[in-house]
Amino acid sequence: GAVVSQHPSWVICKSGTSVKIECRSLDFQATTMFWYRQFPKQSLMLMATSNEGSKATYEQGVEKDKFLINHASLTLSTLTVTSAHPEDSSFYICSANDAGTSGRATTGELFFGEGSRLTVL
Amino acid sequence: GESVGLHLPTLSVQEGDNSIINCAYSNSASDYFIWYKQESGKGPQFIIDIRSNMDKRQGQRVTVLLNKTVKHLSLQIAATQPGDSAVYFCAETQGGGSNYKLTFGKGTLLTVNP
Predict the structure, then answer these.
(1) CA–CA separation, A99 vs A91, rounded Å?
(2) Are the beta carbons of B79 and B16 closer than 8 angstroms?
């Protein structure tokens, strides 16, 4: 099956610093990627939809300037947590759907990365 | 044992028993549903999906049932194994499966006792 890779898998940073998390589709192209946040023992909450070559669409309540998303290519989306604070500590997960060789969604499957655990001290 | 939906976030079963995990959804416009398995510290793993024009779909050891009348979804796992221990989430979306903006349920922790 298709693989979505996230890096880093875990990161610890000091309060006030910025952290970048990468999401890569390794063997397929993804015009759309999704970023989720998951707090311990809770469900996944959609943060934003990342569109290749255009601005991300953020869910209500998610700060655009705090969570910067860039989707510069069909295989890479990045999430940057700016000026991180302890309350930003969470498990961040991305997902991507296979756009197929034509660039349009053809296979109808959504693949998730293994997640990136952020701890802000 | 049978879960009674999101009000019971944990389910403990004996190895070899059948497990039933329930999920209630609220959006009557949802027409595509997916069950995911999430092991500790990992991302969700696709188990099985179902479209709203079906009420039952079977996979390997798993069956998903959909009752649109009461907006209820269930996942049945046959002959539950220790490796099935994980948190199980249902997810819903609209658009017949071409829209992957998913809304996840709260999840159920399944523990399989040897």
Answers:
(1) 26
(2) yes
Residues of A with CB under 8 A from a CB of B: 4, 6, 32, 34, 42-46, 49, 93, 95, 97, 105, 108-115, 117
Contact by Cβ (8 Å): A35, A92: yes
Residues of chain A in contact with residue B107, where contact means CB-CB under 8 angstroms, are 42-43
User: What SS3 class is residue B84?
Assistant: helix
Nearby residues of B60 by Cβ (< 8 Å), 6 or more positions away: none
Disruptive mutation site among B23, B100, B103, B106 for chain A (greatest number of A CBs within 10 Å): B100
Closest to A107 measured CA to CA, from B71, B54, B97: B97
Token duo for residue B25: 């959804």
Contact between B101 and A34 using a beta-carbon 8 Å cutoff? yes
CA distance A81 to chain B (A): 19
**pLDDT tens series, chain A, 121 aa:** 679 999 999 999 999 999 999 999 998 888 889 999 999 889 999 999 998 888 999 999 999 999 999 998 989 999 999 999 999 999 999 999 876 554 444 445 688 999 999 999 9
Is residue A121 within 8 Å of residue A14, measured between CB atoms?
yes
Look-up: residue for tokens 């660039």? A103
Query: Does residue B96 sit at the A interface (CB-CB below 8 Å)?
Result: no
Cβ-based contacts of B105 with chain A (< 8 Å): 43
The bridge status of strand B108-113 relative to strand B10-14 is parallel
Tell me which residue of B33, B25, B32, B35 sits closest to B84, measured CA to CA. Answer: B35
